[in-house]
Specification:
The complex is a heterodimer of chains A (about 120) and B (about 675).
Chain A: E1 6-10, E2 13-17, E3 21-22, H1 27-38, E4 43-47, E5 53-54, H2 56-72, E6 76-79, H3 85-93, E7 99-100, H4 103-112
Parallel strand pairs in A: 2-4, 3-5, 4-6, 6-7
Antiparallel strand pairs in A: 1-2
Chain B: H1 7-12, E1 32-34, H2 42-53, E2 57-62, E3 67-71, H3 72-78, E4 94-96, E5 102-103, H4 109-116, E6 125-128, E7 134-139, E8 142-145, E9 151-160, H5 162-180, E10 184-189, E11 194-197, H6 199-205, H7 209-212, H8 228-237, E12 242-250, E13 256-267, E14 273-282, H9 284-299, H10 307-322, E15 333-340, E16 350-357, E17 363-370, H11 375-393, H12 398-408, E18 415-422, E19 428-434, E20 440-442, E21 449-450, E22 468-471, E23 477-481, H13 483-487, H14 492-505, H15 511-523, E24 532-539, E25 546-552, H16 557-571, H17 578-596, E26 604-612, E27 615-622, H18 636-644, E28 647-653, E29 656-664
Antiparallel strand pairs in B: 1-3, 2-3, 2-9, 4-5, 4-6, 6-7, 7-9, 8-9, 10-11, 10-14, 12-13, 13-14, 15-24, 16-17, 17-18, 18-19, 19-22, 20-21, 20-23, 23-24, 25-26, 26-27, 27-29, 28-29
Helix pairs in contact in B: 5-11, 10-11, 11-12, 14-15, 16-17, 17-18
The chains are: A alpha/beta (about 120), B alpha+beta (about 675).
Chain lengths: ~120, ~675
């Protein structure tokens, strides 16, 4: 079994670090954990910087997260380095999520777009 | 003026003083410490008394985060007496994020709560006491607001989660052991519907987890055994377990398998039976051995084996059943393994070996020898092997794995163990050796040599084992063995010298033949008083023109496919972006074969690849008849393949489906 996703939290932003490889064997668990994590925060950063392999199941998950972002009004950002082979696959598959080169830049971007009266979890 | 306070006064009290809950009652000096920044009214005092009565660590601050009050539990929790009016944000000595990075006090959840005027929830922190002990805890920082909603201070409660985290760790460890067990471990609900399915079950029955979960467990029953299920469920509903029940089950491909079943009820917190856990072990080999035994008895009725003999045979069968039944199939990696029990007049020992793929693509190889003989040694050996796999899979370096196994041994047990992690691409090898004879490296040209660095055997308790690193070249053989090989017929130093000499002479020969020759020349037909186990591995040179691999149709095959294909492509000088494009396209084709190839022997698929000048041509073949499916990826698999490859053909034959892929390696000419 491949390793799973690592989750953390920064300024109420859910950060999901994607394991180096995503395929049939782990995508379902990764998907469940990301959605679970995203539901308790106001924004989501998906860190693909360690990613070396992503198949169509992984691309499909990113598309679902994009849809989720539109429906829930929760900003979603990707972290991917331009030189990573995965970046090319994102272009080929037309993944429309905004990309940044580091988690810090993604978090800054999300915070800039933050609504004026953020909803803190009560 | 600042209240002073010493820890002894605090710990002298035991439990909250309920009298303090009465508003306005005199407060004992040890209960809580307040520095009034403004006049303390009745309501404030009541609030502080309430805090002091709580068994959890609670403190308050002003709007700038300066500490204004904390309770007795806070002193015990933080291991220090916080400094009122000076300490800010938190009562703790030091703070860390759950991943171990230090956390500045002004980044802590309480600081965020005050700055942003909102309660912060769901963020764990680690508190370090001055004595270095650490507590995993959940803070509940909440701003206190005046009538206009302005922050006038804050209150925070810290809940100790250390025990829960340990428990979660134990659960994870258990889950890892279940996942990596060679035994099929299945759970089902009380209606007989499968609810979990481990890797052992995938291998034993041929169904992938997503094919089995949600289906009735009777898919595993041959028609003449269907009557067993109601009886099993009935017994479980009564709360009774079933142990070592021997029966027959049916694999996905229709073949039958002899198994031994242990079935136990799963209970909820209230003790009600809510499900069933089944452990199934393939006993085909044991059945065969028993048949051999019966034949033997018939032929030599006069010399019926005495009780001791059959006990020994039984132990040997247990021991064999604990050895791995397969070694990983990796293109470009050659394995050979031998296990020879001691001569019939000797008791059975506890030699074992294991080979497995780690999640990062490296290989774990282990060989060991449990002191003592008979069923008990075989039991210790089975436990060690299972733990080794579990810790190995968690990615710990060899020395750490040995440390942990050592801690879990019981007094009186002793094991020599060598654990080695080999990266099949770089040849990088890391190993740690607990009292085991040293591994032998047999280079293609040159003399064999033993790898240095031996620490004491595992005997239980604490010892800081050391990891050592080396690199093996393609073509070098690495031989692991137990002392029976070098000690059976001669003194150990003479045996080691002989092993090095014999292996040097036959360095280039195929690994299977090399192992046979080594065994023959070192122990020949001599009577042995000890078992002999030998495990050898070699990285093979790859044929840059051709590659082929056949794999079972289970999800874990995808990673094996990627590892070996990448190794072949890289060895042939294939670079990005072609490298990743080919990997992705082959991954898609492989995933389709795994998900959709059915048939009488639809248990495997194969990938064959050829290099023709600057083109890579690939065929992925299975025995199923499928169309490009849309499930799971929204139909993106085919689209991605077509965009990254020059040619994609899906060819359906009566016998199965072949995906034919081609990709040029030169960048396309401009224009």
């Amino acid at each position: 079994m491949l390793p799973g996703v690592e989750l953390s939290n920064q300024d109420g932003i859910a950060i999901a670090t994607i394991p180096p490889e995503i395929d049939l064997s782990n995508v379902r668990e990764v998907r469940a954990r990301i959605f679970d994590h995203a539901s308790s925060s106001w924004a989501l950063v998906i860190d693909l910087s360690r990613s070396t392999y992503l198949d169509s199941k992984g691309i499909h998950l990113l598309m679902e997260l994009d849809q989720f972002s539109r429906q829930s009004q929760q900003p979603v950002r990707l972290v991917v380095v331009r030189e990573q082979p995965v970046a090319r696959l994102l272009d080929i598959a037309g993944v429309p999520i905004r990309r940044h080169e580091s988690v810090e830049l993604a978090v800054e971007d999300v915070l800039r777009d933050r609504p004026a009266f953020p909803e803190g979890p009560a | 003026m600042r209240d002073t306070h010493d820890a002894s006064a605090v710990s002298a009290g035991s439990g909250p003083d309920h009298a303090e809950l009465v508003p306005g009652a005199p407060r004992s000096s040890g209960a809580g410490i307040t520095r009034p920044l403004r006049v303390v009214g009745e309501s404030d005092r009541w609030f502080h008394d309430l805090i002091d009565s709580l068994p959890a660590a609670v403190y308050t601050t002003d709007a700038e985060g300066r500490l204004t009050h904390f309770n007795r539990a806070a002193v015990e929790f933080s291991g220090r007496v916080p400094d009122l009016g000076t300490d800010r944000w938190c009562i703790s000595w030091r703070l860390y994020y759950p991943d171990g990075r230090p956390m500045a006090h002004d980044e802590c959840p309480m600081a965020i709560a005050l700055r942003e005027n909102r309660p912060v929830r769901g963020v764990d922190i680690i508190v370090e006491r001055p004595d270095g002990t650490r507590i995993w805890c959940a803070p509940y920082p909440t701003p206190l607001r005046d009538a206009e909603g302005q922050v006038i201070g804050g209150v925070n409660m810290l809940i100790d989660l250390t025990d829960r985290k340990h428990a979660e760790g134990a659960d994870n460890r258990l889950a890892a052991i279940v996942q990596w067990s060679d035994d099929a471990i299945i759970s089902k609900d009380l209606n007989g519907v499968i609810t979990s399915w481990n890797q052992g079950a995938e291998h034993l029955f041929g169904y992938a987890a997503d094919e089995a979960i949600g289906r009735p467990v009777t898919i595993l029953f041959p028609p003449d055994r269907l009557h067993e299920e109601p009886r099993i469920l009935e017994q479980i509903r009564r709360g009774q377990a079933i142990e070592h029940y021997e029966t027959v089950r049916r694999r996905k491909d229709g073949t039958l398998v002899d198994i031994s079943l242990t079935v136990s009820p799963v209970r909820d917190d209230l003790g009600r039976v809510v499900g069933v856990s089944k452990i199934a072990r393939d006993i085909t080999e044991r059945k065969r051995a028993e048949q051999v035994l019966r034949d033997h008895e018939a032929a030599h009725r006069r010399e019926l084996e005495d009780a001791l003999q059959s006990k020994r045979r039984f132990t040997e069968i247990i021991q064999r059943s604990l050895l791995p039944d397969r070694v990983p199939q990796l293109e470009g990696v050659e394995f050979a393994a031998r296990y020879m029990p001691a001569s019939p007049d000797a008791a059975v020992g506890g030699d074992f070996y294991d080979v497995f793929e780690l999640p990062n693509g490296q290989l774990g190889l282990a060989i060991g020898d449990v002191a003592g003989q008979g069923v008990q040694a075989a039991g210790v050996m089975g436990q060690q092997r299972m733990l080794l796999r579990a810790y190995g899979h968690e990615g710990h370096p060899p020395a750490t794995v040995l440390d942990r196994l050592n801690r879990l041994l019981k007094p009186g047990e002793m094991v020599t163990l060598l654990y080695l992690v080999l990266d099949p691409i770089s040849g990088q090898m890391t190993y740690a050796n607990a009292g085991h004879p040293p591994p032998l490296v047999v280079p293609l040209g040159g003399r064999s040599s033993y790898l240095p660095g031996v620490d004491p055997p595992l005997v239980g308790g604490w010892y800081a084992y050391r990891s050592h690193e080396t690199v093996v070249a393609i073509g070098d053989a690495v031989i692991l063995y137990t002392d029976g090989l070098v000690e059976s017929t001669q003194r150990i130093d003479a045996g080691l010298a002989r092993l090095a000499q014999v292996s040097t002479e036959i360095a280039g020969s195929p690994l299977e033949g090399m192992v046979d020759a080594v065994v023959r020349k070192l122990i020949g037909g001599a009577a042995r008083r000890d078992d002999v186990a030998v495990l050898a591995v070699r990285l093979q040179p790859l044929d840059p023109g051709h590659f082929r691999i056949a794999l079972p149709t289970v999800p874990s095959s995808l990673r094996t496919l990627r590892l070996s294909l990448r190794r072949w492509l890289e060895a042939g000088g294939v670079h990005e972006p072609a490298l990743s494009d080919i990997m992705v396209a082959c991954g898609e084709a492989g995933a389709n074969a795994i998900q959709h190839a059915y048939g009488p022997d639809g248990g495997s698929f194969e990938l064959e690849a050829k290099r023709e000048n600057d083109r890579i041509i690939i065929w992925v073949r299975d025995r199923g008849a499928w169309r490009f499916p849309r499930n799971g990826d929204g139909g993106r698999g085919l689209m991605i393949m077509e965009r990254v490859m020059d040619t994609v053909n899906v060819i359906k034959n009566p016998g199965g489906t072949t995906v034919h892929l081609e990709r040029g390696l030169r960048p396309p000419a401009d224009g």
